[in-house]
User: Fold this.
Amino acid sequence: MSYITSIGTAVPLHKFKQEAIADFMCNYLDADQLLTRQISILYKKSAIETRHSVIGDFALPKSERSFFNGHVPNVGERMATFQKEAPTLAIKAIQNAIAKNDDWE
Assistant:
């Protein structure tokens, strides 16, 4: 019989406060007062305090960004970036699961 012996997790390297992401998006989209208010409400109502991302651009000056570099990335571009980074996260999660399990022999 098969059963789950351990669960491992992993998060992307980059960590940001929710407010920082909201501010970034308002600035990136050159949001007017109404859109800024809407973005602020949306991000606050999510009840998320911290976000992890495979994209580090949220804390970088415009000249150093590699992903948000002048255009709004579409879903395909975002998914391609995550697809490239996902195997590393999967390996970290597997290693974490193995390390947590005392029953491995």
The radius of gyration is 18 Å.
